[in-house]
# Entry
Amino acid sequence: MRGRFAPKGMTGVEAQLGPGEAAGAAAMRREREERVIDLRSDTVTRPSEEMRRAMANAEVGDDVYGEDPTVNRLEQRAAELFARPAALFVPTGTMGNQIAIHLHTRPGQEILCESRAHIYNYEMAMPGAFSGCLIRPVLTADGVLTWPALAPALSLEAPYHRARTGLIVVENTLNMAGGIVTPPPVAAEICRRARDLGIPVHLDGARIFNAATTLRRPVEELARGFDSVMFCLSKGLGAPVGSMLIGDEEFIHRARIARKMLGGGMRQAGILAAAGLVALEKGPARLAEDHANAAFLAAGLANLPRAELDPGRVQSNIVIFGVAKTGEPAAKFVEKLAARNVLAGAAGPDSVRLVTHLDVSRQQCQAALEALQALLARD
Ligand code: TLP
# Structure
C-alpha cells in the first residue's frame, strides 16, 4: 500500500530507498500484484487504456451549471438505452439508491425489499438517516422477490399502529443471493400491482446489464414499469467511478437537487463521464465471458467435498458457496485463500463470495480453482 507521503507510484518504504533499490522494490510489488487474483468484487476493475485515453481527452465544463458536455452526453446516452426521458450521473450506486428513496418516500414510511438487498444491508442505515424510513425486509428462499412474497408485508391502512408502505425496491441481479436474476414477468407483476395501489417501485439495477446478459433481453425491457432505476458503471462495465439514476424529467430534476444536498455536485466530472461512456459502449458485450467464468468456478467448486453450493443457481457473475464443512468461519477461509494469492469476500459467517470481472481471465479462474481445491478437497 502506498504511504501517505510517498511520491506517486511508490510505497513509503520504497520512498526511503535509493533510486535503483526503489525501482527493484516497485517491480517486485507489481509482480506480486499481478500474481494476485482478485475475486472480491467486480468493483475492483481498473480502467482500460481506451478509457484512460477518453478521460485524458474529455471535453469538460462545470456540471453544477449543467455545462459539462461529456456528462450531458453520458446522461443522454443512459436515458436513451433505457428508453426514458432523463438520467443523472451520480458518484456511487449508494447515492443513486438513496436519492431515489428520498424522493419516493416521506419520513415515517416503510420500504419493502428482499432481506439480502443492498439498500438494507450495506447502505449505512441511510433510509433511516436521510429519509426517515424503516426498511421491512422480505424473506425469500431463492432471492427472487415476487408479488405473493411482498403482499403480506404491505401496510396500507393501519395509520395508528404501523407505518404505511411508501416504496418497494427490487434488486436485479440480487447480489447477496449469488447474482440471482429476476424473471421479467415477476418484475412486471410487482410494478403493475404496486401502481394499482399507488406505491412507487425503484429498481436497484447495479448489475442490470448482467441480468440482461443472462436473459438476452435489452436493459430497457428489464427496467420497464419501474418508477426509477439505478445502475452502476463501476462494476462489471469497468468504469473507475460512477452510477446513473434514471427516470422522468421531473424526478431527475428533483434528483439533481438531492444530489447537490448530499455534496454530489461534481464540477468537471466529464473526466469520469468519459470513462462511463466507454463502459456503456464496450462493457455489456463482454459480460457473457464473466458469466461463463463464474459457471466454470461453480462447476469446479461443486466437485469439492467441503464446498456447499448448487452450481445450477449461478446465473450471472457471482458465486456464493458455503464453507461450514471446513469447521472454520468464512473470514478464516478467506484469509487462507488470500495466503494463496486469491482474494474473496466473506458473504456471511459460513459463506464466501467470488465475483468474476474483466480483470480475471479463464486461466486465472483455473488457478483460483486450484487454490480453492487445496482448501476444500479433504473431508
Ligand atoms: N456492492 C458492493 C458492496 O457494497 C457489497 C459489491 O462489492 O458488490 N446496489 C448493489 C446491488 C450493489 O451490489 C452495490 C455495491 C451498490 C448498490 C452500491 O454501489 P456503490 O458501491 O457504487 O455505492
